[in-house]
Design goal:
Strand content: 15-25%
Order of helices and strands: HHEEEEEHEHEHEHE
Protein name: DUF7869 domain-containing protein
Pfam family, one: DUF7869
Helix content: 40-55%
Number of helices: 6
Radius of gyration: 22 Å
Distance between the termini: 69 Å
Organism: Psylliodes chrysocephalus
CATH superfamily: Ribonuclease H-like superfamily/Ribonuclease H
CATH architecture: 2-Layer Sandwich
CATH topology: Nucleotidyltransferase, domain 5
Number of domains: 1
Oligomer: single chain
Largest sheet: 7 strands, mixed
Amino acid sequence: MKSANSAKLLDCMITLKKTFNLTKVCSNWKIHNEKYTQARKFYEADKIKSQNSKDLFVSVDLQKVIMLPRCEMFKSLIFTQRLVAYNESFVPLKSMAKEQPTAVIWHEAIRGRKKEDIISVFAKYIQSQRDRLKITFWVDNCSAQNKNWAFLSFLVFVVNSSLIEASEIEVNYFEPEHTFMSADSFHHSVEKSLKTMKKVYDFKDYKLAIENTKAKTIEMSTEDFSLWKDHSKK
């Protein structure tokens, strides 16, 4: 029995070795570990720096979609197709009286969440902070929203425009699977507020639930969205 089990184990090890290059896997893990450790170190440094700085330091994340109406207190409801609401949150790295989270909100009847839509949201928020001399964003590694040439092209445009005072916009990316940031804590607060309200019938109720967390809201309109393009190539 023992030899049979040993043979099976040996077969499994041989199969594993054929399937994976273990040396490469270990090397990649080491690089990944170094990157996320370094990113977290820089994030914590920016958190400290933000306390005594006039520059803006925020983490940015799109909250999971909210379906409206939301009435979990009732066992059953009858309604038509629900409305999808979006909340792109810009949250200070550290809770401070002088800064408050900003939720830029819209719903699917206005626009979706394609890359050009998210860029338009960034444009709206950045213009609300037009007097800042430097803006630092911390975002996750979602290439569809935060890490694409259209977004980078927009940043080059806006920092060289007369729309804002900032001469520098810095974007920092967390390593995948290690993206916990202040925006996540804010989303938790929004979720708690929604549960406290119990009956969230429409978009106005959703906005109120966010504002109950002491956050500022910016509501997007159709005129705020543009078709931002990738200008990395001529």
